[in-house]
Amino acid sequence: MTKRFFSSVRARATIGASLVVAVALVAAGAAVLLSLRANLTDQASGQAESAARGVASRLAANEPYDNLDLDDEEHPVQVVDGDGRLVAATEDLQRISGTGVAAVKPRPVATPPKGDDDDDDVSQGDAPELGEVSDDEPRVTSGSATVDGETQDYRFAAVEVNSETKGDLTVHAGASLAAQQSAVSTALTSMLIGFPLLLAVIALVTWLVTRRALRPVDAITTEMAAITASEDLARRVPEPDTHDEIARLATTTNETLAALQTSVERQRRFVADASHELRSPIASLRTQLEVGAAHPELLDVDGAVEDTVRLQELAADLLLLARLDAGEKPGGGQVDLAALAREELSQRTRDRVDVRMDLRNADVTGSRGQLARVLGNLVNNAQRHARSHVTVATRAEGAWAVLEVSDDGDGVPEGERDRIFERFVRLDDARTRDDGGAGLGLAIARDVAARHGGTLTVKEAPGGGALFELRVPAVTR
Known about the structure:
Layout: H1 2-6, H2 9-60, E1 77-81, E2 86-89, E3 93-97, H3 116-123, E4 132-133, E5 139-147, E6 150-163, E7 167-176, H4 178-230, H5 245-294, H6 301-325, E8 333-336, H7 337-346, E9 354-359, E10 363-366, H8 368-385, E11 389-397, E12 400-407, H9 433-436, H10 441-451, E13 455-460, E14 466-473
Parallel strand pairs: 9-11
Antiparallel strand pairs: 1-2, 1-7, 3-5, 4-6, 5-6, 6-7, 8-10, 11-12, 12-14, 13-14
Helix pairs in contact: 2-4, 5-6, 6-10, 7-8, 8-10
């Protein structure tokens, strides 16, 4: 059952679409999370730098450490002097990492004694010069800190400042990453909940759409199974009015069924007609042999020979038609139609009327035996209908080699000129067994012409009668 499910186009389409969407969602979700995290981290870095520069500005203004007001729990601060000593820090700072200075309690700084010169300077109102905050890009690091018992991850910025009274100092200030972590966690949770739901919706929609799109295929499959079971080739599959690939498939299937029905009906007619044609000479030959066995003096040897010849010719015609229907290739030999006609006509000794020749060279590529059969069939047909003579002509005409066989008989009615090339078809005035043949000669001739890439048509001869024209691609020189 599982194997059958996964072999379904509907199931494969649904799984494929779901996998593609899942990969796209994972990639998009990862990109969104990374972008969100980067933006919030940059925002925290900016806040840390702003806090650090605020403290540094007050230090540059020679403000005493005790007046810095570093009680902001959102931005833990460390002030480190040039010797790496912690000189000021957030009051409730209990632990810190990531700044390079692990100390959380500042060491007391000794105040230098005042001398007479100092008293003179102060008395004269001279104030110390202001320090300078570095304009360089601050060094930004990540770490953590515990302030008033609460531990969080921070982004720290280090700003350099030079104070006239305090010397070189470094201010480390942090900005909490809690907002970043909360936003990323919320987004990730939403994705973990929303993505599976979205995938389920997409899989369901794909399944329904595919089922609807493939519904005509199910109908076609059901009808084809019924046709196979019933062997009724007259039935047709339903054609959806969608004008898409499935509609074209249904149309092509019906065309194939129609062609198959025509082929089967043609084959059945062929077998029935062949059986009918074989029955007469076989029955006649059997009767003659039975009479001859009982009364040898009454045996009609000539009649038995004629019936045997008819059977042999009919069997040869049926065999050639079977080979042509099987797609036998005509071969690649070069044949001169004029030489072929001259040789074949010279071997005929039982013609009823005279055969005239107008032969000019016309080379073609194909099977000499099959082309000889065409010529013989056309001449035999003309002999049955001619009054006084038959004319055979060959010539080259542009890209074609032409073979014409004409007679001076009554000709072929215009309405019958296509039907006479069908198998076992004989016109009403030529249906006697003795003179009319089996009705396969012209069918064989047209099939051979088609196999050679040519055509065989019939029209009225200039002097009356019928003119059969074979056109085959000529050999280019």
